[in-house]
Write a structure and sequence with these properties.
- The chain is built from 30 helices and 29 strands.
- It is α/β, with parallel strands linked by helices.
- A hairpin with a 2-residue loop joins β28 and β29.
- Belongs to the DNA mismatch repair MutS family.
- This is DNA mismatch repair protein MutS.
Length: 881
């Protein structure tokens, strides 16, 4: 048995092997030590105390789910080694083998997955011209592939995929490790990704070693899965990545499940690009603080009622469209659902009752579905016909197309409804799965077992009458079978034909020849019934598996209907409007609102703002104003409204005209990345450099406080140069929030630059935030007032005002030291501390004399001639020194 374990471990050395022994999964050697540490199991041993002691740990097989999930969350992989024979019918050692490997990216158990989040494994192949990227969600069968030209595009693509696991060739592994990308990295050698282009063009066969334990992949199936790539030229890296992901799937799942769809090739340019920092700064799927879903854009706008709809909404958010035509098809559908209230509400009610059809298909295809899964499938397809009837009168192009393609599966529905009982058991080995009438052979066995139970009741009544023992009972258990139990008080009344079977403390158990004969019949029928039900279920499951492609198509349609109806529900609940979307170059938003912030305000009313970005007079907007006034909110809401419009959603505004953008870039907030050895300023500069390299004239850029992580002059210089570059070379639509008021001078010399500010009102040395974006520049940042609002002590506030006044006036004392150094404590000057330099350097006696002379002049009493003479004298003194 240990040799079986060692063989399995040798084939899957990077996994924790769960080795089935009866009702337990056991682990041995280093696996046992690791599992005991990570899962809190008791570590014991075989041959304790001997030289060949074998560490071991285990748990009941039926409770494996939480243990698998715990290891997967730590990035580990688990190989499930099952008993392939019935121990009760096998002589000698039971045959065992690995039936599947579970990794972070290949989870199918619904208890280990977030129902509303896809679970991708990605494959990356780095070549001479760029990177091929393939992704697969094995729980739904979604298989996609693309090509990106450089490492920046690779990181952005993996970020929006959110892959839990990434396999990569050496070149790609080097890039991903250097950038510490998210997801568990599984480096592979070049051979893992190899494909022969000649064989591919003539029918494709992924290298001859693409098999596992003698299991060849079906060549026709592989060809079908990769067929869409044949239409793409120069996709060697993408083909290699796709081959790698199929090889990984074959090795871990012992083949390719039938629900895996043909690869969908897409070009990155088909979708609006959002890099990792932009996604984080805009808090699209999780918050910056704490990484929580609550408080994100996704959580705010998600009104879907099905799990598949929730996943599709996330996908649309990660991959917004840039082509106005399909976008307007979506918007037409949302508009129709907004108008047709009854249709929308009835549709959402019907969709709320469907199960996750995509993931049901995944479990059916992999052979993991039980009777309850098939019952869920039956209930789901039973809802399709009413949904199709409900949408019979729709008019928009997209809704008509979806409704026309929606199959009602009448034959399959009737088949399942007549097969599975209303409340089937979880186990497939205990019987009780099928309705009467599904199988004549099964009905016969059911009749025999049910009749046997009736016979037992009649036999008990007969024996009570014959023996006059009213407490006599006929019972059954798995160990002793059927027996007659008689209490000790009645033992003197036991008939002579009763044969003793078991003695208890308070009773004796017996059997009779008649009881034994019937027991053999009943138990034989019960066993045959369970065996037959299991075979019938496997046959039915395989029958359903044959319709998986059509079922997956229906699942996609239902998910799309859910998202479109959810957009309409969102629009009606929160007063959103349909945006006008085209391929123009303007973004004009009237009274736009931040979709998340407006939902979180309790006492304060959200103040809407209007924005007009075009490619001529105002594509670079310099936004000034105090902290806390709302600069960040305004620029982010413009990005979010644009994003929502390109998803196909209505938007929070009075009106909106969106010329689609190809990329959105965001540099907002201050953060460091100590893991990569980057300071706050280095992160800021890296992200800024990334924007300047990739932004185009069709991009939307929002910047907040560029240059604040270094000295004032350095920061101002960088901010100025960045703004000039965006204006002169890129010409991207840019909103640049800053406290460097010097940047407002850009509007004097640049035709596309425009000054905007957030209005405030001063009242009794306090400020009132008006939250309104207005044309023109702010002349102050009101930082001290904001400090007061934050709770700084009044002594600090008062001193800060004094220092600010001194700095702004540039006042110096008689020694040339800035008055900013004055305070209640003794001053430090060049006289009382010769080693202390002044802020502006040491002044010579002549300069001090001129300054003292200036200070002694009474300007109001001087005549013009006296003033000129005094100025001439001071000039002479300075020239002589």
């Amino acid at each position: 048995m240990l040799q079986q374990y060692l063989d399995a471990k040798a084939r899957y050395p990077e996994t924790i092997v769960f080795f089935r022994m009866g009702d337990f999964y056991e682990m041995f050697f280093e696996d046992a030590v690791t599992a005991a540490r990570e899962l809190g199991l008791t570590l014991t041993a075989r041959n304790k105390g001997e030289e060949d002691e074998v560490p071991m740990a285990g748990f009941p097989h039926h409770s494996s789910g939480p243990y698998i999930s715990a290891l997967i969350e730590r990035g580990m992989a688990v190989a499930i080694c099952e008993q392939l024979e019935d121990p009760s019918q096998t002589k000698g050692l039971v045959k065992r083998d690995v039936v599947r490997v579970i990794t972070p990216g290949l989870v199918m158990d619904p208890d280990s997955l977030d129902a509303r989040t896809p679970n991708y494994v990605a494959s990356v192949y780095g070549g001479q011209s760029g990177f091929g990227v393939a992704s697969l969600d094995v729980s739904t069968g979604t298989f996609r592939a693309t090509f990106v030209p450089d490492h920046l595009g690779l990181v952005a693509e993996l970020a929006r995929l959110g892959a839990r696991e990434v396999i990569s060739n050496p070149l790609a592994s080097e890039v991903l490790e250097a950038r510490k990308t998210k997801g568990f990295l599984r480096p592979k050698d070049e051979a893992f990704f190899e494909s022969d282009e000649a064989e591919f063009s003539s029918g494709l066969r992924i290298e001859r070693d693409l098999m596992m334990d003698g299991l060849f992949l079906d060549e026709k199936e592989v060809t079908k899965l990769l067929q869409p790539l044949r239409a793409q030229k120069g996709m060697d890296a993408t083909l290699s990545a796709s081959c790698g992901i199929l090889r990984y799937l074959a090795q871990t799942q012992r083949g390719i499940p039938t629900h895996i769809r043909a690869v969908e090739f897409y070009e990155v340019g088909q979708y609006l690009v959002l890099d990792d920092s932009t996604r984080a700064n805009l808090e699209l799927t999780e918050t910056l603080m704490g990484g929580k879903r609550v408080g994100s854009l996704l959580n705010t706008i998600d009104k879907t009622v099905s799990a598949a709809g929730g996943r599709l909404l996330r996908h649309w958010m990660n991959y917004p469209l840039v082509d106005p035509k399909p976008l307007n098809f979506r918007l037409d559908s949302v508009s129709e659902f907004v108008k047709k209230t009854v249709v929308r509400e009835d549709l959402r009610l019907a969709l709320d009752g469907v199960y996750d059809l995509e993931r049901l298909c995944g479990r059916i295809s992999s052979g993991n579905a039980n009777a309850r899964d098939l019952k869920a499938l039956s209930n789901t397809i039973s809802a399709i016909a009413p949904i199709k009837a409900l949408l019979a009168e729709v008019e928009s192009t997209l809704l008509v197309n979806l409704t026309t393609r929606l199959d009602t599966f009448d034959d399959l529905r009737e088949r399942l409804e007549g097969a599975i009982v209303a409340s089937p058991p979880v186990s497939l080995n205990e019987g009780g799965i099928f309705e009467r009438g599904f199988s004549a052979d099964l009905d016969e066995l059911i009749d025999l077992t049910d009749h046997g139970k009736d016979w037992m009741l009649a036999y008990e009544a007969k024996e009570k009458e014959r023996t006059k023992i009213s407490s006599l009972k006929v019972r059954y258990n798995k160990v002793f079978g059927y027996y007659v139990e008689i209490t000790r008080a009645n033992l003197d009344m036991v008939p002579d034909d009763y044969i003793r079977k078991q003695t208890l403390a308070n009773a004796e158990r017996y059997f009779t020849s008649e009881l034994k004969e019937m027991e053999d019949k009943i138990l034989g029928a019960e066993d045959r019934r369970k065996e037959l039900e299991y075979r019938l279920f496997e046959r039915l499951r395989n029958e359903v598996a044959g319709q998986i492609p059509a079922l997956l198509s229906a699942a996609q349609i239902l998910a799309e209907l859910d998202v479109l109806a959810a957009f309409a529900e969102l629009a009606l609940r929160h007063d959103y409007v349909r945006p006008e979307v085209d391929d123009g170059t303007r973004i004009v938003i009237e009274e736009g609102r931040h979709p998340v912030v407006e939902r979180t305000l309790d006492s304060e009313r959200f103040v809407p703002n209007s924005v007009n970005l075009d490619t001529q007079s105002s594509f670079l907007q310099i936004i000034t104003g105090p902290n806390m006034a709302g600069k960040s909110t305004v620029i982010r809401q413009v990005a979010l409204i644009t994003l929502m419009a390109q998803m196909g959603s209505f938007v929070p505004a009075k009106t909106a005209h969106i010329g689609t953008v190809d990329k959105i870039f965001s540099r907002v907030g201050a953060s460091d990345n100590l893991a990569k050895g980057q300071s706050t300023f280095m992160v800021e500069m890296t992200e800024t450099a990334h924007i300047l390299q990739l932004a185009t004239a069709r991009s939307l850029v929002i910047l907040d406080e560029i240059g604040r992580g270094t000295s004032t002059f350095d920061g101002l210089s960088i901010a100025w140069a960045v703004a000039e570059h965006l204006h002169d070379r890129v010409r991207a639509k840019t909103m640049f929030a800053t406290h460097y008021h010097e940047l407002t001078e850009l509007a004097r010399t640049m035709e596309g630059a425009k000054n905007m500010s957030i209005a405030v009102k001063e009242w009794n040395d306090d400020i009132i935030f008006l939250r309104k974006l207005v044309e023109g520049q702010a002349n102050r940042s009101y930082g001290i007032q904001v400090g007061r609002l934050a709770g700084l002590p009044e002594t600090v506030v008062a001193r800060a005002k004094q220092v600010l006044e001194n700095l702004e006036s540039g006042r110096l004392d008689e020694r040339g030291v800035p008055v900013v150094a004055r305070g209640q404590a003794p001053r430090v000057t060049p006289i009382n501390n010769p080693n202390q330099l002044t802020l502006f350097g040491q002044r010579n006696p002549a300069e001090v004399a001129v300054i003292e002379k200036l200070g002694s002049l009474d300007i109001n009493a001087l005549t013009p001639l006296e003033a000129l003479n005094a100025l001439s004298e001071m000039k002479r003194v300075m020239e002589e020194t």
